[in-house]
Amino acid sequence: MQKFIGFGFAAALAVVGFAVTPVKAQQLELTITAPAGAGGGWDAASRSLQEVMMATGAAKSVQVVNVPGAGGTVGLAQFVGQAKGNPNQLLVAGITLVGASISNNSPVDLTQVTPLARLTGDPLVIVVPKDSPIKTMADLQATIEKDVAKTIWVGGSAGGADHILAALVTKASGQDPAKINYVAYSGGGESLAAMLGGQATAGVSGYGEWEGQIKSGDLRALAISYPEPIPGIEAKPLKAQGFDIELVNWRGVFAGQGVEGKELETLQAAIEKTVKSNEWQTVLKARGWTDYYAPSDEFKTFIGSETERVRAILTSIGLAN
């Protein structure tokens, strides 16, 4: 419902016999919570939604707020508390928040929000600094085998997709993933700075986040986490290099708990209009994201199965009970 129609005023109109007109998509005034710092994938996805929803007329206005911390669970907790029943509030999140909720034993998780749509799939990339003696995944594997504790990884929040991939590579290299030396950052910009500053052995991020530095030669891409090659990306999948590992860094958009009926349908229609637009396809291409769209019902089922899969992975590598 529009912000200028408060509950009391709407009730008064009903009493005197006036109809309250439902909010149309083009009248939506939205705030999107990105539960991470600037420069990361959730921030980029949130601002891309903001841009395209306004450009296509799917919403009248869209604001983005960053609430970083604890793998997204700080922002999620704030969203759960503030957005219940409020159709003006959206949240962008993904697999990293699933993992962080589990590994941090968070009191909040994605069962406490309303799935609207799965948006994108992003291949994770494993990189090393340009001056690193590590040239291949075989070199990185040998480095891990030699001393897992001195192999310093950087990436997103603890328990998230980046951490999961680093741990799976460590396990595949014959070392205990619970002993991984992983430095977590809440935003992609911070982990990138650590990589460019030579403060890490290897790093993990969404390919689109570090594509510019890979193409400029500042970072050397060793592998991507997709099961198959991706056109335009030179780095080969881990599976093509002898590692039985695949991981999709998906992102989606959510409404608050209790948003339902016509208000939910309006949001669903606005998101569908956005992701099926030419403007959104341009964003996907520019960001290096793949179209991973799934509508709300399919997305809800996906989240259930994905949560169980991530829990099993985290348990197997010592990051969950």
Structure description:
It is built from 11 helices and 10 strands. The protein has helices at residues 7-15, 41-56, 73-82, 95-103, 137-146, 161-172, 188-196, 207-216, 261-275, 278-287, 296-316; strands spanning 29-34, 61-66, 89-94, 113-129, 152-155, 181-184, 202-206, 219-224, 248-256, 290-295. Strands 1, 2, 3, 4, 5, 6, 7, 8, 9 and 10 form a 10-stranded mixed β-sheet that branches. Helix 4 packs across helix 11 (296-316). The chain is globular, with a radius of gyration of 21 Å. The protein starts with 6 loop residues before the first helix and ends in a 5-residue tail after the last helix. Mean pLDDT is 89; it is low at 1-22.
Give a brief outline of the structure.
The chain is α/β, with parallel strands linked by helices and 321 residues long. It has eleven helices and ten strands.
